[in-house]
UniProtKB/TrEMBL annotation, chains A, B:
This is Proline--tRNA ligase. SUPFAM superfamilies: Class II aaRS ABD-related, Class II aaRS and biotin synthetases, YbaK/ProRS associated domain. It is an enzyme of class 6 (ligase). NCBIfam families: PRK09194.1, proS_fam_II. It comes from the Bacteria. Catalyzes the attachment of proline to tRNA(Pro) in a two-step reaction: proline is first activated by ATP to form Pro-AMP and then transferred to the acceptor end of tRNA(Pro). As ProRS can inadvertently accommodate and process non-cognate amino acids such as alanine and cysteine, to avoid such errors it has two additional distinct editing activities against alanine. One activity is designated as 'pretransfer' editing and involves the tRNA(Pro)-independent hydrolysis of activated Ala-AMP. It holds the Pfam family HGTP_anticodon. Residues 38-476 form the Aminoacyl-transfer RNA synthetases class-II family profile domain. The keyword ATP-binding applies. GO terms for molecular function: ligase activity. Its main location: cytoplasm. It comes from Pseudorhodoferax aquiterrae. Belongs to the class-II aminoacyl-tRNA synthetase family. ProS type 1 subfamily.
Length: 583, 583
């Protein structure tokens, strides 16, 4: 490609609404252009990146035996009503009406449509397993779209769906996808982690997120530097402490803590570590009796003052599976005789279910609210001052330094951006839509499903969050809009420069390298600034002075300075620098 | 690809709503699956065809210097309000609202968005010309979607838009596209015609349709077998007759024609050729005076009884440009004193504008309605029986045998399916959206535009309408889902058959041929029926008996019988049969 025949449109300033660096840089580099809230045109420079991402994903999906199809963007509501999602999903599901006032949705994913296809097409166990995928435009009507392509409304997603005859086969299909995803993310040339994720009600370990590591990531990911263990924060287990509970050394005392309604304030007032305090969280679940009347069950969750509650873990407690809410002030008053800030498990007015985090269960001489305004209890001890908890469970987010659940070291935490997810679905959709096949015994049986997504347009944004500097983007070779840029300096003044640049361009083109020749005639400063902003990884600069000495300059986007290379060898030199994924 | 790892899903019966052969065959061959009215999933077999169409289009668009981008499917209404199309377009424009009740459209095309991009990006004449294109999902909410992919609601279109500094340059850009389209359609391997189309108010010859020839086509296309002339029916000019008007030989007579309200009936009753009759069409235009009051102007159009009115030509008459309508019965009665069926230009009650078709203007001794029920006038002659017409014009559709407008022979007519259109837009959109650039003289000037579409998902349907037989589809090599199918007979029973099939499959794969090996173990009859229905152009059958004689069978989908080829030579033989576009 010659730059004069392409659209290169860089900006000095990022738009005011660009909060994150990838949005700023993609806009400044002319890769995307905002059309409306969360809706972007993929400009020529950006589309080249997206196409490379698509090509890698497509190649590896095909290699893994998945079969491509394309499902409609506009989908009739009927199928969505069959699974109940038409009503259950929030306004992020864009519901529309056609000219005849019939209901449709703009697809956010395609579980319903693909399950409808499967129940028509996959009639016998002999046709299984099958995996269908598409790379297609999706729409989620986010309440607050932001961060450019990171959280847009219209986006491109690769979504795959596997269909199997039984759980064992479904798990094998899942593993095939999980492996394909590792190959895909390896090829992108990004630092990433595949982390175990919560698989909801289905259980088991068949849910993994693929997280691109970036300090600006929205997600906390947990890993063990000494082992393969990695999970997202929702999933990562905080093991039970190995030490036993120590004996009480203090008497329980009602201690004045005026105006100190948080554990941190209390610890500071009393001059003790935060880890000796216990926080009280009051939740409620609503239980329907046989007549349909609803009564609330009140739960008291106890966590160490320096720990945070993990909602996913709490949601898995027996009795919580149907959902929970925070208790109302009236409910709290009825059970504790006190308002939040000074609550605790000692001396309750009405019975509540007390659940202690594993760490809290082994504490001694601890501090908690006294159920009296401006007072805390100190020196509290299980058994002596209050009954043992009704339940001991893992209720908290892990913290750095916690032991790894695989027993192989300590956990560390870093930030990531989720760009892929593999998930075992079981029969959730096939049951709702009665998608069955004839098994070997001649009886109908529900299809076992899995679903597998990659955010095609989110990936470039995540790549930039991970790979940029003050001057702009630094693309990995595999997904760069161009792999190499050839920059002649003053080709109008020097026929030799022009000729050398053209020759190198032609040589690299002939070798199948994705090269762009900057023939725009820009001055060096503006030209270099453009390419550093756009982030093309390899640059060759051809200037009159060096050329007379038989040399040109090579510089990788990460190099601090250029390297002189003999003109005759530059083609070979550049090719040797390209990552094998591109060559 | 091995068939066992793909989805092959053929049907014996076409769905009841499949009215045309392409819809029937695409459904039966498992290429598309209907999800809703005019909304189809592109199934794996069909998507392969679509991807090949896309790839050819993309390659030739890039070769012609067009630059790919992708504009959003969901577009804010504001831009569409700028050009007025949000209000002017009918319900085929799918208007939707997001969660905040803001107006959006699902794109039917992207003139507004691309013009918005151009007015931001193309600021100087130095950046021109530019041509931007996308291959993207579109939606038109057809009142009555039908014919499968031929007239769907959701479809894929390639739309390109050129931007130029002046008309001369815009016309050059138009010609570049027109040439690229010829290359594209040549590569598809279809019989097609590029026909001149009406360019609306802009004038000139800068509008061409690309029509795939098919007996079932919706459009009549006009061409000259002896020259390059080709036009669609709207555009094709009926030349003025070269012979002068002959002198009157009959006296005008009011002749009873009871119950004969059509020219055909009158001609039959009177035993004269239909071409001696003249039909009267009464139109009206509404003229606003300075006070905004509307008065109707009544027009009488006279065409030969055997000719059809051409609405586009009529719409170009001076005074008709703002649109016309058929006159009401009241208006007809007021001017003719008679109801339709017996109208004519002789003896009008009120003045009307009489427009004679060129053919009618040279007639003598003709027959028309007498403006009296159940009576016609015979022996009518211009000048003697009524004044010369106010206007003589080309009002009619051409018919086969008419002289070609280029003077090189006679016109013929065939049917076609429009799959592409190139169109010079001028400043229609740039004016509405104030899309200007700085010209060489430093002054802002409106961008000159052209637009260029190809119906990516319509093309396969058109290809099938042109290329099929009783057994199924016959794909041209370039867009076949697979180019070659290898069919082993009883590979389970004969290791030699299996081995020979595998070896040929591997040889063709290695040569880059898009080959599928049918390893499903189907019986020969079912297997051949599947591939003939699907329409793979080249088939190699490997059976035990021939193999023992050192031979296998090759059959092109159009061949009546198979050809025996030596096993050792079959790879080379097949490759030699592939069209160069594919190899």
């Amino acid at each position: 490609m010659k730059a004069s025949q392409f659209l290169i449109s860089t900006l000095k300033e990022a738009p005011a609404d660009a909060e994150v660096v990838s949005h700023q840089l993609m806009t400044r580099a002319g890769m995307v252009k905002k059309l409306g809230a969360g809706i972007y045109t993929y400009m020529p420079m950006g589309l080249r990146v997206i196409r490379k991402v698509e090509a890698i994903v497509r190649e590896e999906m095909n290699r893994a035996g998945a079969i491509e199809m394309t499902m409609p963007v506009v989908q009739p509501a009927e199928l969505w009503q069959e699974t109940g999602r038409f009503d259950k999903m929030g306004p992020e599901l864009l519901r529309i009406k056609d000219r005849h006032e019939r209901d449709y949705v703009v697809q956010p994913t395609s579980e319903e449509v693909v399950t409808d296809i499967a129940r028509q097409e996959l009639r016998s166990y002999k046709q299984l397993p099958k995996n269908f995928y598409q790379i297609q435009t999706k729409f989620r009507d986010e309440r607050r779209p932001r961060f450019g392509l990171m959280r847009g409304r219209e986006f491109i997603m690769k979504d795959a769906y596997s269909f199997d005859r039984d759980q064992a086969s479904a798990k094998a299909s899942y593993q095939v996808m999980a492996q394909a995803y590792r190959r895909i993310f390896d090829r992108f040339g990004l630092r990433y982690r595949a982390v175990a994720a919560d698989s909801g009600a289905i259980g088991g370990d068949l849910s993994e997120e693929f997280q691109v590591i970036a300090a600006t990531g929205e997600d906390a990911i947990v890993y063990c530097p000494d082992s393969e263990y990695a999970a997202n924060m929702e999933k990562a287990e905080a093991l039970a402490p190995t030490q036993a509970r120590a004996a009480a050394t203090q008497a329980m005392a009602k201690t004045p803590t005026p105006g100190k309604a948080t554990c941190a304030d209390v610890a500071q007032l009393l001059g003790v570590p935060l880890s000796t305090t216990v926080k009280s969280l009051v939740l409620a679940t609503d239980v329907q009796d046989a007549n349909g009347a609803s009564t609330a069950r009140i739960w008291l969750l106890l966590l160490r003052g320096d720990h945070d509650m993990n909602e996913v873990k709490v949601g898995k407690l027996a009795g919580m599976e149907q959902g929970f809410r925070f208790a109302t002030l009236a409910e709290i008053d009825a059970h504790f005789g006190c308002q939040p800030g000074y609550l605790g498990p000692v001396g309750l007015r009405q019975p509540v279910t007390v659940v202690a985090d594993r760490e809290v269960a082994v504490m001694h001489d601890w501090i908690c609210g006294a159920n009296a305004p401006d007072f805390h209890m100190t020196g509290v001890n299980w058994g002596r001052d209050l009954p043992e908890p009704d339940l001991v469970a893992d209720l908290r987010n892990v913290v750095a330094g916690d032991p790894s659940p695989d027993g192989k070291g300590m956990l560390a935490i870093e930030r990531g951006i989720e760009v892929g997810h593999v998930f075992y679905l079981g029969t959730k959709y096939s049951r709702a839509m009665n998608a069955s096949f004839l098994a070997e015994d001649g009886k109908p049986q529900l299809l076992e499903m899995g679903c597998y997504g990659i955010g095609i347009t989110r990936l470039p944004a995540a790549a930039i969050e991970q790979n940029h500097d003050a001057r702009g983007i630094i693309w990995p070779d595999a997904i760069a809009p161009f792999t190499v840029v050839v920059c002649p300096i003053g080709p109008d003044r020097s026929p030799a420069v022009k000729e050398a640049a053209d020759a190198l361009y032609q040589e690299l083109l002939a070798a199948g390298v994705d090269v762009i020749l900057d023939d725009r005639g820009e001055r060096p400063g503006a030209m270099f600034a453009d390419w550093e902003l756009i982030g093309v990884p390899h640059r060759v600069t051809i200037g009159d002075k060096a050329l007379k000495e038989g040399q040109v300059e090579y510089q990788h986007r990460r190099d601090a300075a250029a390297t002189r290379v003999a003109t005759a060898e530059i083609g070979t030199f550049v090719k040797s620098r390209l990552s094998s994924a591109t060559a």
